[in-house]
Amino acid sequence: MSEIESAPAVPGGRFTTTRMKRVEVRNVIIIGSGPAGLTAALYTGRANLKPLVFEGDGFEETTPGGQLMITSEVENYPGIYKYSISTDENNIPLAKIEEFLTGPEMISILRTQAQHFGAECHYKRVEEVDFSCRPLRVKVDGENHFAEAVIIATGASAKWLNLPSEEEYKNFGVSACATCDGALFKGKDVMVVGGGDTAMEEATYLTRHCKSVTIVHRREEFRSSRIMVDRARENDKIKWLLNSRIVEILGEKQGFRKFVTAVKINNLKTGQDEVVPTDGVFVAIGHKPNTEIFRGKLDMDELGYIRTRGRSTVCNNSNGEMTAGVFACGDCQDHVYRQAITAAGSGCMAAIDAERFITANPILYGIESEDSQSYVKLMERVSIAGGREKSGQP
Ligand code: NDP
Protein backbone atom coordinates (compact mmCIF):
# COMPACT_ATOMS: atom_id res chain seq x y z
CA MET A 1 0.00 0.00 0.00
CA SER A 2 1.35 3.44 -0.84
CA GLU A 3 2.12 6.12 1.68
CA ILE A 4 -1.01 8.06 0.70
CA GLU A 5 -3.44 5.20 0.69
CA SER A 6 -2.26 4.08 4.10
CA ALA A 7 -2.44 7.55 5.63
CA PRO A 8 -4.48 7.79 8.81
CA ALA A 9 -7.64 9.87 9.08
CA VAL A 10 -6.81 13.09 10.89
CA PRO A 11 -9.50 15.22 12.49
CA GLY A 12 -9.56 18.62 10.80
CA GLY A 13 -8.24 17.07 7.58
CA ARG A 14 -4.49 17.65 7.83
CA PHE A 15 -1.85 15.34 6.39
CA THR A 16 1.87 15.72 5.73
CA THR A 17 4.39 13.60 3.84
CA THR A 18 7.83 14.45 2.50
CA ARG A 19 6.41 14.65 -1.04
CA MET A 20 3.21 16.51 -0.20
CA LYS A 21 2.47 20.02 0.98
CA ARG A 22 0.43 20.30 4.16
CA VAL A 23 -2.98 21.79 3.41
CA GLU A 24 -5.99 22.58 5.50
CA VAL A 25 -9.39 21.35 4.40
CA ARG A 26 -12.20 23.51 5.72
CA ASN A 27 -15.63 22.12 6.32
CA VAL A 28 -17.33 24.70 4.17
CA ILE A 29 -16.42 27.66 2.03
CA ILE A 30 -19.16 30.17 1.18
CA ILE A 31 -18.79 32.37 -1.90
CA GLY A 32 -20.80 35.58 -1.66
CA SER A 33 -22.19 37.66 1.19
CA GLY A 34 -25.68 38.85 0.40
CA PRO A 35 -28.56 37.58 2.54
CA ALA A 36 -28.13 34.07 1.05
CA GLY A 37 -24.41 33.79 1.79
CA LEU A 38 -24.60 35.34 5.25
CA THR A 39 -27.57 33.19 6.25
CA ALA A 40 -25.66 30.10 5.06
CA ALA A 41 -22.72 31.39 7.15
CA LEU A 42 -24.98 31.81 10.20
CA TYR A 43 -26.43 28.31 9.93
CA THR A 44 -23.13 26.54 9.18
CA GLY A 45 -21.55 28.61 11.96
CA ARG A 46 -24.19 27.47 14.44
CA ALA A 47 -23.61 23.89 13.22
CA ASN A 48 -20.00 24.41 14.39
CA LEU A 49 -18.62 24.05 10.85
CA LYS A 50 -16.52 27.26 11.11
CA PRO A 51 -17.41 28.52 7.62
CA LEU A 52 -14.91 30.51 5.59
CA VAL A 53 -16.73 33.27 3.66
CA PHE A 54 -15.26 34.99 0.62
CA GLU A 55 -17.48 38.05 0.37
CA GLY A 56 -16.08 39.58 -2.82
CA ASP A 57 -13.81 42.58 -3.15
CA GLY A 58 -16.05 45.03 -5.02
CA PHE A 59 -14.59 44.22 -8.43
CA GLU A 60 -16.12 42.20 -11.26
CA GLU A 61 -19.62 42.27 -9.73
CA THR A 62 -18.53 40.86 -6.40
CA THR A 63 -19.93 43.56 -4.10
CA PRO A 64 -19.64 42.47 -0.46
CA GLY A 65 -23.24 42.45 0.78
CA GLY A 66 -24.68 42.17 -2.74
CA GLN A 67 -27.67 44.10 -4.03
CA LEU A 68 -28.84 45.20 -0.56
CA MET A 69 -25.84 47.52 -0.56
CA ILE A 70 -27.65 49.64 -3.18
CA THR A 71 -31.01 49.51 -1.42
CA SER A 72 -32.35 52.24 0.83
CA GLU A 73 -34.92 51.28 3.49
CA VAL A 74 -35.79 47.58 3.60
CA GLU A 75 -39.46 47.47 4.57
CA ASN A 76 -40.29 43.93 3.49
CA TYR A 77 -37.86 41.74 5.42
CA PRO A 78 -40.08 40.33 8.15
CA GLY A 79 -39.18 41.33 11.65
CA ILE A 80 -36.14 43.45 10.88
CA TYR A 81 -36.66 47.08 11.86
CA LYS A 82 -36.05 49.33 14.82
CA TYR A 83 -38.97 49.01 17.20
CA SER A 84 -40.19 49.78 20.65
CA ILE A 85 -42.34 47.42 22.68
CA SER A 86 -45.06 48.39 25.09
CA THR A 87 -47.87 46.25 26.48
CA ASP A 88 -51.63 46.55 26.25
CA GLU A 89 -54.06 46.34 29.17
CA ASN A 90 -53.79 42.51 29.12
CA ASN A 91 -50.00 42.64 29.25
CA ILE A 92 -49.73 41.48 25.62
CA PRO A 93 -46.64 42.93 23.88
CA LEU A 94 -47.34 45.66 21.32
CA ALA A 95 -44.59 46.46 18.83
CA LYS A 96 -44.27 49.94 17.32
CA ILE A 97 -42.19 50.58 14.22
CA GLU A 98 -39.64 53.30 14.95
CA GLU A 99 -37.55 53.11 11.78
CA PHE A 100 -36.70 50.73 8.95
CA LEU A 101 -33.13 49.66 8.39
CA THR A 102 -31.22 50.43 5.22
CA GLY A 103 -29.82 47.62 3.07
CA PRO A 104 -26.21 48.21 4.23
CA GLU A 105 -27.36 48.22 7.89
CA MET A 106 -29.13 44.90 7.35
CA ILE A 107 -26.03 43.35 5.80
CA SER A 108 -23.92 44.54 8.71
CA ILE A 109 -26.37 42.98 11.16
CA LEU A 110 -26.42 39.67 9.27
CA ARG A 111 -22.61 39.58 9.02
CA THR A 112 -22.16 40.28 12.74
CA GLN A 113 -24.62 37.51 13.58
CA ALA A 114 -22.75 35.01 11.34
CA GLN A 115 -19.39 36.03 12.80
CA HIS A 116 -20.78 35.69 16.31
CA PHE A 117 -21.28 32.00 15.56
CA GLY A 118 -17.81 31.45 14.12
CA ALA A 119 -17.96 32.55 10.46
CA GLU A 120 -14.65 33.87 9.15
CA CYS A 121 -15.39 36.60 6.60
CA HIS A 122 -12.91 38.05 4.10
CA TYR A 123 -13.37 40.84 1.54
CA LYS A 124 -11.82 38.72 -1.19
CA ARG A 125 -12.88 37.59 -4.64
CA VAL A 126 -12.80 33.96 -5.76
CA GLU A 127 -10.90 33.71 -9.04
CA GLU A 128 -11.30 30.06 -9.92
CA VAL A 129 -12.91 26.87 -8.66
CA ASP A 130 -12.26 23.18 -9.20
CA PHE A 131 -15.19 20.96 -8.28
CA SER A 132 -13.98 17.95 -10.27
CA CYS A 133 -12.77 16.08 -7.19
CA ARG A 134 -12.74 16.26 -3.42
CA PRO A 135 -11.67 18.21 -1.49
CA LEU A 136 -13.19 21.03 -3.53
CA ARG A 137 -10.75 23.76 -4.50
CA VAL A 138 -11.35 27.51 -4.44
CA LYS A 139 -8.62 29.88 -5.60
CA VAL A 140 -8.34 33.33 -4.00
CA ASP A 141 -5.47 35.79 -4.56
CA GLY A 142 -3.54 33.00 -6.28
CA GLU A 143 -3.82 30.76 -3.23
CA ASN A 144 -5.76 27.48 -3.11
CA HIS A 145 -8.30 26.87 -0.36
CA PHE A 146 -9.87 23.44 0.12
CA ALA A 147 -13.22 22.45 1.55
CA GLU A 148 -15.50 19.49 1.94
CA ALA A 149 -18.44 21.60 0.79
CA VAL A 150 -18.84 24.87 -1.12
CA ILE A 151 -21.94 27.04 -0.95
CA ILE A 152 -22.34 29.38 -3.91
CA ALA A 153 -24.23 32.58 -3.08
CA THR A 154 -22.82 34.96 -5.66
CA GLY A 155 -26.16 36.63 -6.44
CA ALA A 156 -27.10 38.55 -9.53
CA SER A 157 -26.46 42.08 -10.63
CA ALA A 158 -29.04 44.39 -12.12
CA LYS A 159 -28.16 45.58 -15.56
CA TRP A 160 -27.91 49.36 -15.82
CA LEU A 161 -28.13 51.85 -18.66
CA ASN A 162 -24.54 52.91 -18.00
CA LEU A 163 -25.22 56.65 -18.13
CA PRO A 164 -23.09 58.95 -15.91
CA SER A 165 -26.29 60.66 -14.68
CA GLU A 166 -27.76 57.27 -13.74
CA GLU A 167 -24.75 56.66 -11.51
CA GLU A 168 -25.17 60.14 -9.99
CA TYR A 169 -28.82 59.53 -8.98
CA LYS A 170 -28.67 55.84 -7.98
CA ASN A 171 -30.52 55.57 -4.65
CA PHE A 172 -31.68 59.19 -5.05
CA GLY A 173 -34.53 58.49 -7.46
CA VAL A 174 -32.91 55.83 -9.63
CA SER A 175 -33.51 52.23 -8.60
CA ALA A 176 -33.42 48.72 -10.05
CA CYS A 177 -35.93 47.20 -7.64
CA ALA A 178 -39.58 48.26 -7.48
CA THR A 179 -40.40 45.87 -4.65
CA CYS A 180 -37.56 47.36 -2.59
CA ASP A 181 -38.07 51.05 -3.33
CA GLY A 182 -41.58 51.46 -4.82
CA ALA A 183 -43.20 52.53 -1.56
CA LEU A 184 -40.83 55.50 -1.39
CA PHE A 185 -42.57 56.95 -4.45
CA LYS A 186 -46.10 57.18 -3.08
CA GLY A 187 -48.25 59.51 -5.18
CA LYS A 188 -45.34 60.29 -7.54
CA ASP A 189 -44.81 59.96 -11.29
CA VAL A 190 -42.15 57.43 -12.20
CA MET A 191 -40.70 55.71 -15.25
CA VAL A 192 -39.77 52.09 -15.83
CA VAL A 193 -37.20 51.28 -18.51
CA GLY A 194 -37.44 47.98 -20.40
CA GLY A 195 -39.81 45.79 -22.39
CA GLY A 196 -39.41 42.41 -20.70
CA ASP A 197 -41.39 40.60 -18.02
CA THR A 198 -39.48 42.40 -15.27
CA ALA A 199 -40.43 45.82 -16.68
CA MET A 200 -44.12 44.85 -16.97
CA GLU A 201 -44.14 43.34 -13.50
CA GLU A 202 -42.33 46.28 -11.91
CA ALA A 203 -44.58 48.81 -13.66
CA THR A 204 -47.74 46.99 -12.57
CA TYR A 205 -46.44 46.74 -9.01
CA LEU A 206 -45.51 50.44 -8.93
CA THR A 207 -49.06 51.49 -9.83
CA ARG A 208 -50.03 50.45 -6.29
CA HIS A 209 -47.93 53.31 -4.95
CA CYS A 210 -47.45 55.83 -7.72
CA LYS A 211 -49.71 58.35 -9.41
CA SER A 212 -48.47 57.29 -12.85
CA VAL A 213 -45.92 54.90 -14.32
CA THR A 214 -44.47 55.44 -17.80
CA ILE A 215 -42.84 52.47 -19.49
CA VAL A 216 -39.93 53.60 -21.67
CA HIS A 217 -38.96 50.95 -24.20
CA ARG A 218 -36.58 51.13 -27.12
CA ARG A 219 -38.83 49.18 -29.53
CA GLU A 220 -42.53 48.75 -30.32
CA GLU A 221 -42.41 44.98 -29.81
CA PHE A 222 -42.04 43.51 -26.37
CA ARG A 223 -39.84 40.72 -25.15
CA SER A 224 -42.32 40.27 -22.30
CA SER A 225 -45.00 37.60 -22.45
CA ARG A 226 -48.29 38.70 -24.02
CA ILE A 227 -50.27 38.25 -20.82
CA MET A 228 -48.03 40.58 -18.86
CA VAL A 229 -48.06 43.27 -21.57
CA ASP A 230 -51.86 43.00 -21.75
CA ARG A 231 -52.14 43.33 -18.00
CA ALA A 232 -50.00 46.48 -18.12
CA ARG A 233 -52.03 47.84 -21.07
CA GLU A 234 -55.26 47.41 -19.12
CA ASN A 235 -53.87 49.45 -16.23
CA ASP A 236 -55.00 53.09 -16.49
CA LYS A 237 -52.05 54.35 -14.48
CA ILE A 238 -49.52 53.01 -17.01
CA LYS A 239 -48.42 55.20 -19.94
CA TRP A 240 -46.08 54.25 -22.76
CA LEU A 241 -43.08 55.87 -24.41
CA LEU A 242 -42.05 53.44 -27.16
CA ASN A 243 -39.17 53.62 -29.63
CA SER A 244 -37.52 55.73 -26.97
CA ARG A 245 -34.45 55.63 -24.81
CA ILE A 246 -33.34 57.68 -21.86
CA VAL A 247 -30.15 59.54 -22.68
CA GLU A 248 -29.84 61.58 -19.48
CA ILE A 249 -31.38 61.70 -16.01
CA LEU A 250 -31.87 65.23 -14.74
CA GLY A 251 -32.21 66.31 -11.13
CA GLU A 252 -31.61 68.81 -8.38
CA LYS A 253 -29.18 68.84 -5.49
CA GLN A 254 -30.03 70.33 -2.10
CA GLY A 255 -27.10 69.94 0.26
CA PHE A 256 -26.55 66.19 0.66
CA ARG A 257 -29.90 65.35 -0.88
CA LYS A 258 -30.54 64.79 -4.54
CA PHE A 259 -33.80 64.38 -6.46
CA VAL A 260 -34.66 63.22 -9.94
CA THR A 261 -36.84 65.81 -11.67
CA ALA A 262 -36.90 64.75 -15.33
CA VAL A 263 -35.28 62.63 -18.04
CA LYS A 264 -34.05 63.50 -21.48
CA ILE A 265 -35.67 61.07 -23.91
CA ASN A 266 -34.42 60.40 -27.40
CA ASN A 267 -37.03 59.23 -29.89
CA LEU A 268 -35.33 56.53 -31.94
CA LYS A 269 -37.66 57.02 -34.93
CA THR A 270 -37.49 60.81 -35.24
CA GLY A 271 -34.10 61.32 -33.58
CA GLN A 272 -35.62 64.16 -31.51
CA ASP A 273 -34.75 64.76 -27.85
CA GLU A 274 -37.42 65.77 -25.35
CA VAL A 275 -37.28 66.53 -21.62
CA VAL A 276 -40.05 64.68 -19.74
CA PRO A 277 -40.66 65.41 -16.03
CA THR A 278 -40.54 62.45 -13.62
CA ASP A 279 -39.80 61.78 -9.94
CA GLY A 280 -38.04 58.47 -10.35
CA VAL A 281 -36.56 55.98 -12.79
CA PHE A 282 -36.72 52.21 -12.34
CA VAL A 283 -34.29 50.40 -14.59
CA ALA A 284 -35.72 46.97 -15.44
CA ILE A 285 -33.59 45.79 -18.34
CA GLY A 286 -32.72 42.45 -16.80
CA HIS A 287 -30.41 40.91 -14.26
CA LYS A 288 -27.23 39.01 -14.83
CA PRO A 289 -26.37 36.16 -12.48
CA ASN A 290 -22.83 36.39 -11.16
CA THR A 291 -21.87 32.90 -12.25
CA GLU A 292 -19.12 33.45 -14.81
CA ILE A 293 -16.45 31.55 -12.81
CA PHE A 294 -18.70 28.45 -12.72
CA ARG A 295 -19.37 28.39 -16.47
CA GLY A 296 -18.63 24.95 -17.92
CA LYS A 297 -18.35 23.51 -14.41
CA LEU A 298 -21.95 23.59 -13.23
CA ASP A 299 -25.28 23.08 -14.95
CA MET A 300 -26.87 26.44 -15.79
CA ASP A 301 -29.85 27.64 -17.79
CA GLU A 302 -29.41 29.69 -20.94
CA LEU A 303 -29.32 32.92 -18.89
CA GLY A 304 -26.51 31.65 -16.66
CA TYR A 305 -28.62 30.87 -13.56
CA ILE A 306 -27.32 27.76 -11.76
CA ARG A 307 -29.77 24.85 -11.88
CA THR A 308 -30.29 22.98 -8.64
CA ARG A 309 -31.78 19.54 -8.13
CA GLY A 310 -35.47 19.54 -7.35
CA ARG A 311 -36.28 21.48 -4.20
CA SER A 312 -32.70 21.18 -2.89
CA THR A 313 -29.70 23.47 -3.34
CA VAL A 314 -27.61 20.62 -4.76
CA CYS A 315 -25.78 21.40 -8.03
CA ASN A 316 -25.08 19.27 -11.06
CA ASN A 317 -21.98 19.52 -13.20
CA SER A 318 -22.28 20.54 -16.84
CA ASN A 319 -22.91 16.88 -17.81
CA GLY A 320 -25.95 16.79 -15.56
CA GLU A 321 -24.25 14.61 -12.93
CA MET A 322 -24.45 15.49 -9.25
CA THR A 323 -21.51 17.60 -8.08
CA ALA A 324 -20.59 16.23 -4.67
CA GLY A 325 -20.51 18.92 -2.02
CA VAL A 326 -21.51 21.94 -4.15
CA PHE A 327 -24.66 23.88 -3.26
CA ALA A 328 -26.18 27.06 -4.68
CA CYS A 329 -28.59 29.53 -3.08
CA GLY A 330 -29.98 33.02 -3.55
CA ASP A 331 -30.26 34.99 -6.76
CA CYS A 332 -27.51 33.09 -8.61
CA GLN A 333 -30.05 30.25 -8.92
CA ASP A 334 -33.37 32.14 -8.73
CA HIS A 335 -34.64 34.62 -11.31
CA VAL A 336 -38.25 34.34 -10.19
CA TYR A 337 -38.52 35.60 -6.60
CA ARG A 338 -35.26 37.56 -6.14
CA GLN A 339 -36.09 38.91 -2.67
CA ALA A 340 -33.77 39.25 0.33
CA ILE A 341 -36.04 37.00 2.36
CA THR A 342 -36.22 34.25 -0.28
CA ALA A 343 -32.44 34.45 -0.73
CA ALA A 344 -31.96 34.13 3.03
CA GLY A 345 -34.36 31.16 3.08
CA SER A 346 -32.43 29.35 0.38
CA GLY A 347 -29.15 30.18 2.19
CA CYS A 348 -30.56 28.34 5.19
CA MET A 349 -31.48 25.39 2.93
CA ALA A 350 -27.95 25.30 1.45
CA ALA A 351 -26.41 25.27 4.93
CA ILE A 352 -28.60 22.34 5.98
CA ASP A 353 -27.86 20.47 2.72
CA ALA A 354 -24.10 21.10 3.18
CA GLU A 355 -24.11 20.02 6.82
CA ARG A 356 -25.93 16.78 5.97
CA PHE A 357 -23.55 16.13 3.07
CA ILE A 358 -20.46 16.61 5.23
CA THR A 359 -21.83 14.31 7.91
CA ALA A 360 -22.63 11.59 5.35
CA ASN A 361 -19.39 12.00 3.34
CA PRO A 362 -16.37 12.81 5.53
CA ILE A 363 -13.07 13.28 3.71
CA LEU A 364 -10.30 11.30 5.39
CA TYR A 365 -7.50 13.75 4.69
CA GLY A 366 -6.57 16.70 2.51
CA ILE A 367 -3.46 16.67 0.39
CA GLU A 368 -1.97 18.79 -2.34
CA SER A 369 1.11 18.04 -4.40
CA GLU A 370 3.39 20.75 -5.75
CA ASP A 371 1.78 20.65 -9.20
CA SER A 372 -1.93 20.70 -9.89
CA GLN A 373 -1.92 17.80 -12.38
CA SER A 374 -0.68 15.30 -9.85
CA TYR A 375 -3.03 16.87 -7.31
CA VAL A 376 -5.96 15.70 -9.43
CA LYS A 377 -4.46 12.22 -9.82
CA LEU A 378 -3.76 11.95 -6.12
CA MET A 379 -7.27 13.03 -5.31
CA GLU A 380 -8.61 10.31 -7.58
CA ARG A 381 -6.53 7.79 -5.66
CA VAL A 382 -7.75 9.19 -2.37
CA SER A 383 -11.36 8.93 -3.43
CA ILE A 384 -10.83 5.35 -4.59
CA ALA A 385 -9.08 4.57 -1.29
CA GLY A 386 -11.84 6.31 0.65
CA GLY A 387 -14.53 4.76 -1.56
CA ARG A 388 -16.90 7.62 -0.85
CA GLU A 389 -16.89 9.76 -3.97
CA LYS A 390 -20.25 11.19 -5.06
CA SER A 391 -22.53 9.42 -2.68
CA GLY A 392 -25.05 10.32 -0.03
CA GLN A 393 -26.13 13.70 -1.36
CA PRO A 394 -29.26 15.10 0.21
P1 NDP B 1 -35.32 40.42 -20.50
O1 NDP B 1 -33.94 40.16 -21.01
O2 NDP B 1 -36.40 39.48 -20.84
O3 NDP B 1 -35.80 41.85 -21.02
C1 NDP B 1 -34.95 42.96 -20.91
C2 NDP B 1 -35.63 44.14 -21.58
O4 NDP B 1 -34.81 45.28 -21.38
C3 NDP B 1 -35.83 43.97 -23.08
O5 NDP B 1 -37.06 44.50 -23.45
C4 NDP B 1 -34.70 44.77 -23.67
O6 NDP B 1 -35.03 45.40 -24.87
C5 NDP B 1 -34.50 45.85 -22.64
N1 NDP B 1 -33.12 46.30 -22.60
C6 NDP B 1 -32.02 45.54 -22.45
N2 NDP B 1 -30.92 46.31 -22.44
C7 NDP B 1 -31.36 47.59 -22.59
C8 NDP B 1 -30.71 48.84 -22.65
N3 NDP B 1 -29.38 48.95 -22.53
N4 NDP B 1 -31.46 49.95 -22.80
C9 NDP B 1 -32.81 49.86 -22.91
N5 NDP B 1 -33.49 48.70 -22.85
C10 NDP B 1 -32.76 47.57 -22.69
O7 NDP B 1 -35.13 40.61 -18.91
P2 NDP B 1 -36.22 40.50 -17.77
O8 NDP B 1 -35.52 40.86 -16.50
O9 NDP B 1 -37.42 41.24 -18.11
O10 NDP B 1 -36.57 38.93 -17.70
C11 NDP B 1 -35.53 37.98 -17.43
C12 NDP B 1 -36.13 36.59 -17.32
O11 NDP B 1 -36.89 36.51 -16.14
C13 NDP B 1 -37.08 36.29 -18.47
O12 NDP B 1 -36.95 34.92 -18.79
C14 NDP B 1 -38.44 36.54 -17.89
O13 NDP B 1 -39.45 35.79 -18.52
C15 NDP B 1 -38.23 36.12 -16.44
N6 NDP B 1 -39.17 36.84 -15.58
C16 NDP B 1 -40.37 36.25 -15.33
C17 NDP B 1 -41.28 36.88 -14.56
C18 NDP B 1 -42.57 36.20 -14.32
O14 NDP B 1 -42.85 35.22 -14.97
N7 NDP B 1 -43.38 36.67 -13.37
C19 NDP B 1 -41.05 38.20 -13.95
C20 NDP B 1 -39.76 38.76 -14.31
C21 NDP B 1 -38.88 38.08 -15.09
P3 NDP B 1 -35.14 44.55 -26.24
O15 NDP B 1 -36.39 43.74 -26.11
O16 NDP B 1 -35.20 45.59 -27.28
O17 NDP B 1 -33.90 43.71 -26.30
What would CATH call the architecture of the largest domain?
3-Layer(bba) Sandwich
CATH-derived topology of the largest domain: FAD/NAD(P)-binding domain
| Top CATH class of the largest domain | Alpha Beta
User: What is the strand tally?
Assistant: 24
Tally of discrete structural domains: 2
Q: How widely separated are the two ends? A: 33 Å
Describe this structure in words.
It is globular, with a radius of gyration of 24 Å. 23% of the residues lie in helices and 30% in strands. The protein has 2 domains: 21-78 and 104-157 and 288-386, FAD/NAD(P)-binding domain; 160-285, FAD/NAD(P)-binding domain (3-Layer(bba) Sandwich). The chain has 394 residues and is of the alpha/beta class. The longest helix is centred in the C-terminal third of the chain and has 21 residues, at 340-360. It contains 8 helices and 24 strands. Strands 2, 3, 8, 9, 10, 11, 22 and 23 form an 8-stranded mixed β-sheet that branches. The chain has a 5-stranded parallel β-sheet with strand order 13-20-14-15-16. Helix 1 packs parallel to helix 2. Bound molecules: NADPH dihydro-nicotinamide-adenine-dinucleotide phosphate (NDP).
